[in-house]
Design brief:
Distance between the termini: 38 Å
Helix content: 25-40%
Number of strands: 21
Radius of gyration: 22 Å
Shape: globular
Largest sheet: 13 strands, mixed
Number of helices: 11
Bound molecules: zinc ion
Strand content: 25-35%
Structural class: alpha/beta
Length: 427
Amino acid sequence: MVQLATLAGSYIKTRWDATFIKNRRHLQRVQKRRLQRLLNWLPAGNYYARYKNQPWNTIPYSDKSVWMGNFNRINTLGLDFDQARDFARHQENTRDFSEEIKPGVSVGLSSGTSGNQGVFVTTQREQSLWAGAVLGKLLPGLPKGHQKIAFFMRANNNLYESTSSAKLTFKFFDLMAPMAENLAALRDFEATVLVGPPAMLLEIVRYYQDQNLELPFKKIISVAETLEPEDQDWLSQATNQPIHQVYQATEGFLATTCAYGTLHMNEDNLLVEKDVLDEEQRLFAPVITDFYRHSQPLIRYRLNDILQERATPCPCGSPYLALDRIIGREDDVLEFTTVGGDRRQVFPDFLRKVVLEADNQIQNYQILQKQDRSLQVALDDAAYQDAVAQSFADFFEKQGLEPLSVSFVPYHYDFKMGKRRKIVRER
Ligand SMILES: [Zn+2]
């Protein structure tokens, strides 16, 4: 269950931060204080405790492998890595999430490549902080009155339940439930705020269109996965409203859109450092410190996401770092060979454009680069194959790349498959 007092406290704190933190200098002072409080909180013997009395910027960067390798000393709940992983695997396999590894504690697996699967721990307190922060950032601006929030999530977490107060009713929907059942339940619920991963939002809006139903949603928020620009555009046009976005990774809640639709990093809860990947294109991998994650502290942790910083200040005036977009994961950077024989890496974003340039009506697709580097493109309409093949041929020529073989398969996606990734590199 969500702890309502914690949720409310987090909501109020989020609103307070948004009101009073007005510039970078003030933000940096607040961040320093929050970071020191986290370091002081760490129990003796914790992996990070030795840095308590040192300048924070002497703490080395870590990444998933370091973090997982030191799981037993990093988590503060006394959990053992093998035990926690086996517990989470068992839950995934049986689809039964009713048990908890410890009271109030959930474990989940990251959907990373198999050899590098991560174990993530969250507590009820952290889930409640998260929900309060999401609402604090995204609910303001709604018309007054009782809001009914429909929340679609993959049921890998037993902390989400439905809950109700005078102003809000939450209802949790399981992505694993049959689609028709979910759609009927959603229709009955008459949600005013719809929260879900992009693939589900597309299904829902198409359903309302097919049934000729009026859309009851005053706010639509995409969570859990990257909202691709073409999906955002389609949803926004079909629903006649901006589509809001929560950008999160298994590691945490990283950014949300402001009233202008710009993604801002959650710098009230995170210290964000930039590992610059490409200065000219303003690309970086974020190195984050989460001030409030106590179960499994995240301190100077480098994510393998590639983000693009916004070129111009956002008109909303927020001091929080603004992004143009989320480019994708470093794991999904595809590999090519130039005609001169050099290796060339291509960011997922470019490949996306190759498909959409063939025909901007293409909505469901996936590009898979196989281990032999050949490309396999899944399309839900075979009629686009020739245009997509031509678009790839043009791309190879323009970029001076050795042409790769491009094959086609029918597109298929099911929520049980986990995240819907559009560009994937096979490992
Ligand atoms: Zn903004």
